[in-house]
Amino acid sequence: MIGEVTNVQKGMIEVRSESGEFFRCLLRGKLLQKERTEKNVVAVGDRVLFERLHKDQGIITEVLPRDKCLVRKGAGKKGRHLHQVIAANVDQVLIVVAIKDPPYHKNLIERYITAARGSDLDVTIVFNKADLGLSEETKADIQKYRDLGYRVFLTSTVSNLGIEEVKSALQGRSSVLAGSSGVGKSSLVNAICNSNVRTGEVSDSTHKGKHTTTSSQVHLLPDEGRIIDVPGMREFAISGTEGLDEAFEDIVELSAKCRFRNCTHTVEPGCAVRQAVANGILDERRLQNYLRMKTEV
């Protein structure tokens, strides 16, 4: 039988068959052995071959080749050298941030964009909780992302602002919702799917979100689209620099004007990138994030 992995918990994998039945599956021995050298042999969104054992139980015998995936570098000492597939067989990433509570971080947005473009995934940025009010700085940030060519939505699950536009962007697509805890991803899923996913709050003391989505979950849309809601991630280590130039296309264009072809944009004379920072054209924070990401992999 062929199925799609819709949820992964420790020791148990949920698979939806082509007929729409759900099975609780384990891995066959050879796949269990692969887990010793790979971060995640099976990821949400994977297409798998499995055998039915008893009622709603089964065993996965093979993971079919993956298409495009959202990937990050594994966390922790043991997994730092391994790549972790966040969502398999997707074609776009919706980066969800909150206008405030918790505040958004542009460095993290740029990391998501780099990972997405490195896997040739389309990028959409969703500024949620718009009902809390937009500062002038946030309005400027939104315009900058649009100027860089990204589709940006303003949404509110309180007033339903932008929900229909997001639904339209998801039609017929395989999408992954990525963002920090507390930004309202689960609330967005509820509004989009008319479901009842548990939602969380934001800590008053730290202004950081509390995890409500504890494992990745596939949600099917009525138009054959699907969204994968993944747990909130406050950090996102990129697994490669393939998407870096696309994520920082403005810096790459400026670097073509540097005096030296191998300019590091740090101390060299005639650096067009540093000059753009001095002239207020380029944000110093953005340049430092670019340089940091370029050397960390």
UniProtKB/TrEMBL annotation:
Family annotation (SUPFAM superfamilies): Nucleic acid-binding proteins, P-loop containing nucleoside triphosphate hydrolases
EngC GTPase domain ranges (all copies): 88-234
Residues binding Zn(2+), per UniProt: C258, C263, H265, C271
Enzyme Commission number(s): 3.6.1.-
Compartments, as annotated in UniProt: Cytoplasm
Cofactor note: Binds 1 zinc ion per subunit.
Cofactors demanded by this protein: Zn(2+)
Cellular component per GO, a single term: cytoplasm
Positions bound to GTP: N128, K129, A130, D131, G179, S180, S181, G182, V183, G184, K185, S186, S187
Any single GO BP term: ribosomal small subunit biogenesis
Tree of life domain: Bacteria
Family matches, as InterPro entries: G_CP_dom, NA-bd_OB-fold, P-loop_NTPase, Ribosome_biogen_GTPase_RsgA, RsgA_GTPase_dom
HAMAP family per record: GTPase_RsgA (MF_01820)
Full protein name: Small ribosomal subunit biogenesis GTPase RsgA
